[in-house]
Input
Amino acid sequence: MVRTLLVRGMLVGILAGLLAAGFAYLFGEPQVDLAIAFEEHASAAAGAAAEAEPELVSRAVQSTLGLFTGIVVVGCALGGIFGLAFAYFHGRLGRWSPLLTAAVLAAAGFIVLVVVPQLKYPANPPAVGSPDSIAARTGFYFLLLGLSIAVAIAALGTARQLMARLGGWSAALIGIAIYAIAMAGVMLALPSISEVPADFSADVLWNFRAASLGIGAVLWATLGLAFGALTQRQLTAGRGR
Amino acid sequence: MSHVVSAPALQPAIPTVIPVREILPWAIFGGLLAIIAVYFVGAEQGALSMFDGMYVHEFLHDGRHLLGFPCH
Output
């Protein structure tokens, strides 16, 4: 059974990755191109003798094959973990249908893994962020991601313990409140990073970050809804309509 | 893709609760693989480098930016 759910998660993850990469190509790539144009213009203006760095990988490959590979690999990995998380949570959250369990898990995954980390350390296009701080920025980003996961698990554990006494609704609200308050504290404690060049277009920055959130939304929505639908069908089929 | 095969009676329904000991080995192994996959897409040849050069970074460049990982 676990095997079926893991394989299904990985396959649905690949599908989700393909859709998210398509979204990224349509809405993200134009912003990446604008940011690269800004970067080249700025370095030319700074007098860096127009000596173009040799390209290891062409823009055409980066924006198609590279983009799709990266997002599909992440989609497949997240999908597999999603399938295993579903295997654990199905039947442990109350009498929920597979459809509802998968949808709620995916919504939680989107908030915990995408929205919350990006509220503090949003996605940056090329030309934003100093190369000197890449180690610190990467460290803080993954630290925040890890804390978001750990706090979510702790909050969920607390909520499940309270469920018998307070009922599902109140227990869930308390769990959500614990997560929100703890993450607000974490975000206050972690240092802010603002390295956007003064003359970088605010429109490009906003459009890039909106596209990045959109990619996460497409990925997690596909994961939750497609996985839920397939598992629901299997369950009803198994009961022999 | 979604042709409905007449529900085989052999196919088991999902049990209400799958015991943790059945999930755990998959979860540990899958979790490790997922971390490696996310590391290569999100951080290799950026903040950390297992391999010399910039090819991985350059190939995955756009996805890394758009997925929200710090890139360079």
About this structure: Chain B touches chain A through 47 residues (CB under 8 Å). The CA atoms of residues 61 and 70 of chain B lie 10 Å apart. Residues 20-66 of chain B form one domain. The radius of gyration of chain B is 20 Å.
